[in-house]
Amino acid sequence: MAEDLEGDFNYDDQYSERFHEKAFDAFICPLTKQIMQDPVIIESGCTFEREAITKWFRECVDSGKKPICPLTQKELHSTDLNPSIALQNAIEEWTRRNEAVELNRASTSLTSGGLDREILWALGYIVHFCRKNDANKNAVRDLGFIPMITEKLKNSSRTVRSKALETLRVIAEDNDENKEAVGAEDTIRTIIKFLSQEPSQDRELAVSLLYELSKSEILCEKIGSVYGAILILVGMASSKSENISTVEKILNNLEKSEENIKQMAENGRLQPLLTLLLEAGSPERQLSMGSYLGELVLANDVKLFVAQTVGSSLVNVMKSGSIQAKEAALKALNQISSNEASAKVLIEAGILPPLVKDLFTAGIKQLPMRLKEVAASILVNLVSSGADFVVIPLDDNNQTLVSDETVHNLLHLIRNTGPAIECKLLQVLVELTGSPHLVTDIVTAVKSSGATISLIQFIEAYQKDIRAASLKLLRNISPYMGNELADALRGSPGHLGSLVKVISESDTIFEEQAAAAALLADLPNRDTGLTRQLLEKGAFRIAASKVTFNPNYQAPPPPGLFKRCCMKPPLLDEICPLHKGICSVRENFCLLEGKAVEKLVSCLEHRNEKLVEASLGALCTILNDGVDIAEGVLALCQAEGIRPVLDILIENRTELLQQRAVWAVERILRIDEIAKEVAGDPTVASALVEAFRNADFVTRQIAERALKHTEKLPNFSDTLQKIG
């Protein structure tokens, strides 16, 4: 068997023995017993390899003896070395003839489909031949050996594959043309396959070969273009693998390509992209990297890292950059500001003054509306951070975000822009009025601006998000200006009717209904005129019906995500679809039989992390190997539990929750229909990549399987089984 050839088998010794059988005795150095490459003659007339006799003379001197001839043992008066040109020429000619014979034999062994022993001999000889000098590497390429060797990467013998990887690395070392020849056709993809195996000699050799190839700028782009290659390398760099330093060198080399840098950022390795953003290099490149940063979906801890690294630079671009540069910076800031911690970092970096200025500036210097919308989104993120906006100045006059002038400008902008910006600026006011510390300042500004009627008019907005935001805002300010709101509603029966309609509609979001009901409750209860209008519109009857329990109420089927998966009709016979037997709560704690799935799902959104961990752990039992996983996923889907599990994965609140969420999601993604839908959700992919890079070993393996379900990683297993 080929595997029996592993061990201390020394190919160089074998070649020496073969040469001895054919070489003249005069070609052999008496000291090294090897064929000489640089023969020299000493005073005694004997010939030796230059390096060997030089070492002999040095040892004589070091031992305090006079130099003697190794063969005659006679004392020498001179240690001069005279090159034997004729002998060297003869040896070189003999070597060339011998090597031609051996290369021909190697070619035959590699192409004839012979025994593994012959293939291994051929590969070993080529390694020996290439290590002699650089010209031999060119000869190997010119003689067409590289395609023969790359073909052996698919050999059924692991020993042959390993030797082929080593041989290709030796051929590619310090030879750009050979690198490109090795990287031709589909070879790089084949090499990448070895990286997906468990730690092994093949994987180590593949990493070494890939490192050599990555030194070629041309091949850097080709390596990056192989599906899943960069994600695999980024994952290896994040692990504690034995070849992590070499993998890091590969990734550093791959940074020569902007496309590779973008892929690295997409897969959680952001530093190269951030470095390009910070470098004073090509403005076009910085613009490209900034734009791409704005397109990424980042985990919260990554957002914080980005804000700390390039937040100040992005803010500076906002202040003085071109429109194109500002657009890239705003999109990136919109992405990274959506986390409370990173938003506070950006506030400290001075983002508020230029942001508010861009929002309020009108005329020829104003931002395009599409960018004002992005700026408004950033402002929503910033005010959600809980910072103390009373003490953060916006200009030299110490205006703040809650100053009358600023709030007046916000209200003016709300009344004079399109729906997208209207909605976001209403959300800004909702966040500010949600703080007991800030609400009175906003109320004062609203009263002084005379904007009460304008805000009430949004109750009738066609866009649901605008209507919802306006209701929340009015709800927040109603305890402080109930009389003003009552006057406005009493004078406009249409708006009051719209408010009542919000509460009555069955398809209205509960949070919106609650805000509308709370707003009505905060209005002055002694206002008889308003009370009469509410009675006429049936407000009290509708409110009462909303708190009356309806035993016949049935929850509608879950809309949107996974709906089709959940439309399978339930089984009505006595056989449990999950356990394929008759279950009981008392005997086998069956969650389906105990109707506990929905109750456990409801706990997944609880703030108590221990409760969430326990609930998710219990739900994982319906996805175990011992049950019908498809039925378990169906049960979870019918209880509207898929999205909460995905959200737990995305939030990554604790290590245990991440482990359980990754495990559950991998099981869920075995259902093709769900996997296809989840593949389009970048937040889920980002969370799985994060687990694949930084979780414990077992969770990383499970995350890798999950990424393969969503086709973010190639599945090489079938191919590797065939060649293994």
Short description:
The chain has 724 residues and is mostly helical. Among the domains are: 25-83, Zinc/RING finger domain, C3HC4 (zinc finger) (Herpes Virus-1); 388-549, Leucine-rich Repeat Variant; 596-710, Alpha Horseshoe (Leucine-rich Repeat Variant), CATH 1.25.10.10.
Mean pLDDT: 84
N-to-C span = 14 Å
Overall 3D shape: elongated
Helix fraction bin: 55-70%
Radius of gyration: 37 Å
Question: Topology of this structure?
Answer:
Blueprint: H1 11-22, E1 39-41, E2 47-49, H2 50-62, E3 82-83, H3 85-111, H4 116-132, H5 134-142, H6 145-151, H7 158-172, H8 176-182, H9 187-195, H10 201-214, H11 217-225, H12 229-238, H13 244-254, H14 258-266, H15 271-278, H16 283-295, H17 300-320, H18 323-336, H19 340-348, H20 352-360, H21 369-383, H22 404-415, H23 419-433, H24 439-449, H25 452-457, H26 464-477, H27 482-490, H28 493-504, H29 510-522, H30 528-536, H31 539-546, H32 585-588, H33 597-602, H34 609-619, H35 629-638, H36 642-651, H37 655-668, H38 672-678, H39 682-694, H40 697-709, H41 717-723
Antiparallel strand pairs: 1-2, 1-3
Helix pairs in contact: 3-4, 4-5, 4-7, 7-10, 9-10, 10-13, 12-13, 12-39, 15-16, 16-18, 17-18, 17-19, 18-21, 20-21, 21-23, 22-23, 22-24, 23-26, 26-29, 28-29, 34-37, 36-37, 36-39, 37-40, 39-40
